[in-house]
Design brief:
Strand content: 35-45%
Radius of gyration: 15 Å
Distance between the termini: 15 Å
Number of strands: 9
Order of helices and strands: EEEEEEEEHE
Oligomer: single chain
Structural class: mainly beta
Largest sheet: 8 strands, antiparallel, barrel
Length: 156
C-alpha cells in the first residue's frame, strides 16, 4: 500500500507514455484497493488513471484491476517480487481468443524516487534476476526506464 514510483515499464504499454509516474494504493474497508496512477512530466499536462483492484483471496499477490466501467475485462496483475521497502515487480499476462493470444506487460516500482545510478543498477540487477526465475520467457529488454526524482514534480 502507499505510494510507489515507476522505475521501468514495458515499452508496449499503450496507455502510459510519461515520466515521473507514481502509483498510489489505498486499502478500503471492503478489502478492495483504490489505485491511482499519475504521470506528471509537466504539471500543466499531468495524466491520471484511477481504478479498483480486487485481491484474489486464494492467491496472495494476485489482483484483478479495472480502470473503467467500459473496460471489458479486469486486468490480471501479479506481484512477482517485492521486498516491501525498496522495489516491487508487477507482471500482467492476459489471454484472449480462448488463450490463442496473450498480452503481457510489466512494471518495476520503487518505494522512493531513485536518482543515484548505483541504486538504479542494483534494483535492475535484482529485478532482472527475479524475472529470469519467475517469468523466464519475459524479455526484460522491453522495460524502458522512466524519469524519477530531481526533475520531477509529483502530484499529491
Amino acid at each position: 500500500m502507499g505510494r510507489w514510483y515507476e522505475l521501468r515499464r514495458d515499452e508496449r504499454i499503450p496507455f502510459y507514455d510519461g515520466d515521473c509516474t507514481t502509483a498510489d494504493y489505498t486499502l478500503k474497508s471492503d478489502g478492495t484497493v483504490d489505485v491511482k496512477n499519475t504521470d506528471s512530466d509537466n504539471v500543466d499536462d499531468a495524466d491520471e488513471g484511477s481504478g479498483t483492484a480486487y485481491p484474489n483471496r486464494d492467491w496472495p499477490g494476485v489482483l484483478a484491476v479495472k480502470f473503467s466501467p467500459f473496460q471489458p475485462t479486469q486486468s490480471n496483475y501479479k506481484i512477482i517480487g517485492t521486498d516491501y521497502t525498496t522495489y516491487s515487480i508487477v507482471y500482467s499476462c492476459s489471454a484472449y481468443v480462448g488463450g490463442l493470444y496473450n498480452i503481457e506487460y510489466a512494471w518495476v516500482l520503487t518505494r522512493d524516487p531513485l536518482t543515484d545510478q548505483s541504486d538504479i543498477d542494483s534494483i535492475t540487477t535484482t529485478t532482472d534476476a527475479i524475472f529470469a526465475d519467475k517469468v523466464p520467457t519475459y524479455d526484460t529488454s522491453l522495460l524502458q526506464y522512466t524519469a524519477q526524482g530531481g526533475d520531477c514534480t509529483y502530484i499529491s
